[in-house]
């Protein structure tokens, strides 16, 4: 019966069946696995403990005759006084004037509605006459389309569950259910659709959340397993003694986090499987030196290394750092970009092909067909999300299965890192170098802009530089926000000829952007007005002051990335957020920025405020749509499911026992296995 068309159920005719198909319900199975997105809570509440604007159900005694005010055609407002416990309150119903005849003084009623705590008013949505006796505590609410009503849909759901519930075989193995004390599939379906009480609903949700996350992690871990076993790599037998000597010559001692990550990378280099590792590090945490140690390890084993950066300026900065560390020990570093002249390029490519160049740094110019390595062993892409999958693949294929390290300065919460990048190993540098001064962050209102400009002027007068960030390029009729062009003109007028002001935004050509950025890097431009194109990777140690206009329009992660452009030198740095947020969430973002400089804490907060889809952007997130699981709040279940899935795939029972059949079939249906076993 469970896989029969839904029209087999009593009361579902042709038209209803067609309407159900529009929301993806074809069979009885589809119906019972269509979960409610919330439950109406009809439990009686004490108004003393009910927050403002919350939905509430109360028992009350009618204390006054209802009055009705007619507001126009078919519109009315009915109002009466009622006593709920110790509270004498007003109850209001809109467009239900027929209730006047039934609401008799002294009678007990049960009212559900929204509680206005300040005005002591309930705006009612439903009322029953008499005390609450036989009414349910929880009623499911489904996402429906067309003319299917909630009441009728619940009736179909009740009938479907009663018909097939006992025929269902549990989709989780008994050992797993017992280990985590998860309810049976029958009890879980009852609890998710028609819970008897709050605990019943909680246990049903707990079971389905774990099951959803387990199925998802089985796909991720199977992909990870297949990658490790099918992608043969190279074992880079580096010279450990030389590596230790090199690390000892660095001008500062590595942090504990850097040492941990270096060990993880070195361990990967030695393995015969290809490295596929994501390196996360907050702004200024020292990812570049970790990358340099990895590159040097490859060089000591006779291999070449490549580092691809998204912009010329960032590539130049990497080249400058690597020259500082490597020139003295005879490791040859070269830079290749779109600006490299034809003759120099020919010479460089010839040296690369013969192995004279040990490490090549560059932009996407590295992936052009004529760039041929002699023996490429280690590839690093910086700010990997700025490159397409195809660009990263072409760079990898410049060698014979080289090890690959992806770096990003965008802190990603652990819950999302193990989900969105589950097929990679993830390393995190979560510690800043000793002695680095924390950036002072202040939140001011727009009317305080003049005092901000005066403070900026002091920094500029002492020889420092400043950024001014705006959310839009040009004026918008719809949004009253500061834009780059207007801010540029205002600052030119304010500072006159005292300081040079530069303007950068996304509509400039790349060579124009580079020219402005170079002017700022070399100190010829004192104030850089920019949209968020300045976000990634620019290193100007002399820049100590940042002002972000309309800061409430940015997410926390983006604000933190922008703030990271200052605080890169020996001088104290400042970030001023100019914002007048209208929402509590906006105010919370501003407060969070002033309270911490920890990018990972801010990323967790951003995820909490915006949700996983918005954190990455719905389209490119690669995250599945879960029925019940929430990656923010269910992170413990996600971690457990990840460990269980990884272990399960290496056990014989998963591939043979009947109890695992459902999970096996779901994994096969996902296409990850491509119809073949991976063990």
From TrEMBL:
It comes from Solibacillus merdavium. Its EC number is 5.6.2.4. SUPFAM superfamilies: Nucleic acid-binding proteins, P-loop containing nucleoside triphosphate hydrolases. Residues 268-429 form the Helicase ATP-binding domain. It is an enzyme of class 5 (isomerase). This is ATP-dependent DNA helicase RecG. Keywords: ATP-binding, DNA damage, DNA recombination, DNA repair, DNA-binding, Helicase, Hydrolase, Isomerase, Nucleotide-binding. One of its GO terms (molecular function) is hydrolase activity. NCBIfam families: PRK10917.1-3, PRK10917.2-2, recG. It holds the Pfam family RecG_wedge. The gene is recG. InterPro entries: ATP-dep_DNA_helicase_RecG, DEAD/DEAH_box_helicase_dom, Helicase_ATP-bd, Helicase_C-like, NA-bd_OB-fold, P-loop_NTPase, RecG/Mfd, RecG_dom3_C. Residues 448-608 form the Helicase C-terminal domain. Plays a critical role in recombination and DNA repair. Helps process Holliday junction intermediates to mature products by catalyzing branch migration. Has replication fork regression activity, unwinds stalled or blocked replication forks to make a HJ that can be resolved. Has a DNA unwinding activity characteristic of a DNA helicase with 3'-5' polarity. PANTHER family: ATP-DEPENDENT DNA HELICASE HOMOLOG RECG, CHLOROPLASTIC (PTHR47964). The keyword Cytoplasm does not apply. It catalyses: Couples ATP hydrolysis with the unwinding of duplex DNA by translocating in the 3'-5' direction; ATP + H2O = ADP + phosphate + H(+). Belongs to the helicase family. RecG subfamily.
């Amino acid at each position: 019966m469970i896989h029969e068309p839904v029209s087999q159920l009593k009361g579902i005719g042709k038209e209803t069946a067609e309407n159900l198909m529009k929301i993806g319900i074809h069979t009885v199975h589809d119906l019972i696995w269509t979960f409610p997105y919330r439950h109406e809570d009809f439990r009686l509440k004490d108004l003393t403990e009910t927050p403002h604007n919350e939905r509430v159900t109360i028992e009350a005694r009618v204390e006054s005759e209802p009055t009705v005010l007619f507001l126009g055609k078919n519109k009315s407002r009915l109002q009466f006084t009622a006593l709920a416990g110790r509270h004498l309150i007003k109850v209001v119903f809109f467009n239900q004037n027929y209730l006047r005849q039934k609401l008799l003084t002294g009678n007990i009623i049960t009212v559900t509605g929204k509680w206005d705590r300040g005005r002591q008013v309930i705006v009612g949505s439903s009322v029953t006459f008499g005390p609450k006796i036989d009414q349910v505590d929880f009623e499911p609410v489904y996402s429906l389309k067309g003319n299917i009503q909630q009441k009728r849909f619940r009736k179909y759901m009740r009938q479907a569950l009663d018909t097939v519930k006992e025929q269902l075989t549990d989709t989780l193995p008994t050992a797993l259910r017992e280990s985590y004390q998860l309810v049976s599939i029958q009890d879980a379906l009852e609890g998710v659709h028609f819970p008897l009480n709050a605990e019943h609903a909680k246990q049903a949700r707990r079971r389905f959340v774990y099951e959803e996350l387990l199925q998802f992690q089985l796909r991720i871990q199977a992909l990870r397993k297949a990658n490790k076993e099918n992608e043969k790599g190279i074992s880079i037998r580096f010279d450990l003694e030389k590596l230790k000597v090199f690390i000892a010559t660095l001008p500062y001692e590595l942090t504990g986090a850097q040492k941990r990550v270096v060990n993880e990378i070195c361990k990967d280099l030695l393995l015969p499987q290809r490295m596929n590792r994501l390196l996360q590090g907050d702004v200024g945490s020292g990812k570049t030196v970790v990358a340099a140690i990895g590159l040097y390890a490859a060089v000591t084993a006779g291999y070449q290394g490549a580092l691809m950066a998204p912009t010329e300026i960032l590539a130049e900065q990497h080249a400058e750092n690597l020259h500082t560390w490597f020139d003295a020990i005879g490791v040859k570093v070269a830079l290749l970009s779109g600006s490299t002249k034809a003759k120099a390029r020919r010479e460089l490519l010839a040296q690369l092909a013969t192995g004279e160049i040990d490490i090549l740094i560059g932009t996407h110019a590295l992936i052009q067909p004529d760039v041929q390595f002699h023996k490429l062993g280690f590839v690093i892409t910086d700010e990997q999300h700025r490159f397409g999958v195809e660009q990263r693949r072409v760079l990898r294929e410049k060698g014979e299965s080289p090890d690959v390290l992806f770096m990003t300065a965008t802190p990603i919460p652990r819950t999302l890192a193990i989900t969105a990048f589950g097929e990679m190993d993830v390393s995190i540098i979560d510690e800043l170098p000793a002695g680095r001064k924390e950036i002072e962050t202040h939140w001011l209102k727009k009317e305080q802009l003049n005092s901000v400009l005066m403070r900026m002027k002091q920094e500029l007068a002492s020889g420092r530089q400043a950024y001014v960030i705006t959310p839009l390029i040009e004026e918008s009729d719809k949004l009253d926000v500061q834009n780059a062009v207007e801010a540029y003109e205002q600052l030119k007028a304010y500072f006159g000829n005292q300081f040079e002001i530069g303007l950068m935004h996304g509509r400039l050509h790349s060579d124009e952007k580079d020219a402005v950025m170079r002017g700022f890097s070399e100190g010829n431009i004192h104030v850089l007005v920019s949209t968020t194109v300045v976000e990634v990777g620019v290193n100007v140690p002399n820049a100590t002051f940042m002002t972000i206009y309309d800061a409430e329009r940015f997410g926390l992660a983006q604000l933190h990335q922008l703030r990271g452009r200052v605080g890169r030198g020996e001088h104290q740095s400042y970030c001023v957020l100019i914002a007048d947020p209208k929402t509590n969430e906006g105010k919370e973002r501003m407060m969070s920025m002033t309270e911490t400089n920890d990018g990972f804490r801010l990323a967790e907060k951003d995820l909490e405020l915006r949700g996983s889809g918005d954190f990455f952007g719905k389209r490119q997130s690669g995250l599945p749509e879960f029925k019940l699981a929430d990656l923010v709040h269910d992170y413990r279940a996600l971690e457990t499911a990840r460990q269980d899935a990884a272990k399960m795939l290496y056990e014989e029972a998963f591939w043979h026992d009947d109890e695992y059949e459902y999970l096996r079939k779901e994994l096969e249906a996902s296409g990850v296995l491509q119809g073949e076993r991976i063990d």
